[in-house]
Amino acid sequence: MNKNLRIEAINSGRTTLGIELGSTRIKAVLMDENYMPLAIGKHDWENRYIDNIWTYTLEDIWEGVQGSYRDLADEVEKQYGVTISNIGAIGISAMMHGYMAFNKAGELLVPFRTWRNTITGPASDKLTELFNFNIPQRWSIAHLYQAILNKEEHVAEIDYLITLEGYVHWKLTGEKVLGIGDAAGMFPVDVKTKDFNETMINQFDRLIADKGFPWKLRDILPKVLVAGEYAGKLTEEGAKLLDPRGNLKPGIPLCPPEGDAGTGMVATNSVAKRSSNVSAGTSVFAMVVLEEDLKKVHKEIDIVMTPAGDPVAMVHSNNCTSDLNAWVSLFGEFAKAMNIEVDTTKLYSVLYNKALSGDADCGGLLSYGYYSGEHITHFEEGRPLFVRKPDAKFNLANFMRVHLYTALGALKTGLDILFKEEKVVVDKVLGHGGFFKTEGVGQRILAAAMNTPVTVMETAGEGGAWGIAILADYMLHKKEEDTLDSYLESRVFADMKGLSIEPDKKDVEGFEQFMSLYTAGLAIERSAVETLI
Known about the structure:
By secondary structure, this protein is of the alpha/beta class.
């Protein structure tokens, strides 16, 4: 599409806007009718660790949402000389899970508790036993029940319980709704009714009946919507909240807000059965769309949903690239001290590619990038750690390789349950996120970990913001016969290309050898947590 046609599309509102609140960056993507990004806006932010809680403030949230949209609008002005006033549809996405509890006045009762917190162990265990269904510590219902166990006073005042993107959507539209993908990360969802599991809701209400709370669980949860459904429109207050400069008109329809796992599936065309995608950034998770139910309950594996409401096995690791990025930054600091100016992209490229020349098993080096707790390996806290024996092959290639391997170590622990115990089969794996930015490296490491070919699409860098923009477009333009997977396959991804890498046998064997050391060395990580207080 040439520039004049793009200008016409923007002026006439033949666009969709996706905004995703990630762990370290909020991203806004304006997409045209051909699913191509017209402009991108960004805002960097960081979670805070306050009173043993990983959190973001409401001010952080709105400063970030407004900042990413303002950056996008400025980019549109710069590129096309046009002021955005109308958009075909909007979608909001964010990190899944967490706990945002509001009273009847719409006031936040306690600081936002993000997915990163591992403080709900007793609640998670009790609810998993009660439901015979895995309830991870990140899930909203685990946070709620833990607050009840802790006898927190705010619980009696709860009027609405929601996740981050559902909160932003609520403030923009006035609608208390949530897409089924993230709804399934709040509380178990019934695949037949496409709604919260009524039997389990009744079980929970009976469990807490003696507490005398003035609410029932169903009353404080959002309404569940599936992809393609209408989820409200931008109110006058919402338009001013998103665009304080006042250029954006109210009345724009919004699609159901979705979690980053669901939008990642859309952005990688991974919503069909036997497909999988891995999103690797601050955290890492693999989504595997199931053909049938798993044989047993596994604490390491979440059962959630695609945005269309199909069951998905989700393996989620809290830690991925944070420690890896810290080491790359250290090398950058060294280069600067040597008066060598190195572009960040080149720094990553050189160090990541150096890893490929390392030993397949990392030469006996071991590291854990546990910035926070890690539920898959049963840690409530983490300590980044690097260790080696004196006779290990300590060189730069192995050093970088071990940090790439360990970024996927906890993930592989969970994936091994799916592939080796449950015999789940996947036909394709698509990767996206910062771990894959250096071409070919992250893919090769993931292919070794999963022993499966891995593809990265040309559009993978646009991530979940682009994915939620596609879901907004799906709501606007889907035909009655369009399922989400057919819509993606035949329309969005029909002409898009990607780079695929097959697993290398030596890499696969080397990763397995590394994992033996990784599993045995967890005792070292445990000691570090207990000692470094």
